[in-house]
Amino acid sequence: MTKKRGPDNRSGKGQRSGSGGRRRFYLLLGGLAVAGTAALVVVRNTDGETSRLEPLSLAETSAPASAAAGIAIGASDAPVTIVEFADYQCSHCRNFNAVTGKAIRRDYTGADGPVQWINYDFPLQQTSWAPALAARCGEQQGRYWQMHDLLYAMSDDWIGKSNPDKKFVELAKTAGLDEDAFRACLADRSGFQDIGAARRYGESLGVNSTPSLFINGQPIPPQRDFFSYAGLERLIQEELAAVTATGSD
Amino acid sequence: MSVTTRHRGVAILALFGLFISVYLLLYHLGYYGMLLCGTGACDVVQSSKYADFLGLPVPGLGAAWYLAMLVLGLMLAGNGVETSRPGTLAAILSTGGLAFSVYLTAVELFVLHAICRWCVVSAVLTIGIFLLVGPWRFLRRSPPESFEGLSIE
Asked: Chain B contact for A155, CB < 8 A?
């Protein structure tokens, strides 16, 4: 004889307790679902209209990969060439520029300096295209590096803000740019093609993160200490020594 | 901990994971301009070539996996029989999800040298789901819990 002592035989109190627990569980699950959906909508609304320069994606540019899309400083016949792929919204790029990049360019890329530094835009996010264009509009007036450094230094003022174009214009004025010409350059948007060409060039070299650096054509692995001034300076000295040794052979 | 309680836990964790995956998927599709990531390197991770797996966006795969675990969690919390077919599927999926999560975390640590906080949260959720599902329990092939109240006299 089989005697059933399972859940069905539990007291009425137990059944009420089980059904109450189930109700609480579904209420909790439903509440979480509503809260999660609301969070997605709220984030979307605060994120929206980040720029009047509509965010772009690589697919919206047609320019093929081009090494000519970089912007250089230093002698073209310098024995050491450093290539950087960077994104203005990347915090590591900002820190690298503040601590190392800016100082190395100052100390090594003079008229007789041993280094030529070439910057390529590698926008990782859609909203990274607009600051890259702002820097290139600085280039039109011969002030790319001033805009470049200002965009990084003041990035807390425009990253994630609605309508950062206004801030870009303020930075352009600080960098000594003609405001009307700068505004016209932003509105023209043709610089996006060069940014797309730079990004595709980076992809052709295997770049998938920022900042990515190459020295005399060789990628510098992240394990090498290129983030510090001393670390990158050591790599430059190694390259100079190698070039000198090759020349004396 | 009863089968019902464990699978309710699975459903709750899966719901959290589903929202994280949907958020990352919407970013991947361009619906969001930037990710809320604090000081992490979400942009590096989400824009890398590892953000796609076999041509499919990883956040999309994550959303599908969490949705499946949510449905299975609800089914198992309802019937309390984890040796049923949904129980088998949950055991297989939770193991596969854990393995994929280990792979993605290894890519972040050793290939990209960048950590996305959302991915870390997702990895923790995956571990939690795996522990709650407990595939080893399934492997022991213990009798269904609904039979435990039966006795022969």
From this structure: no
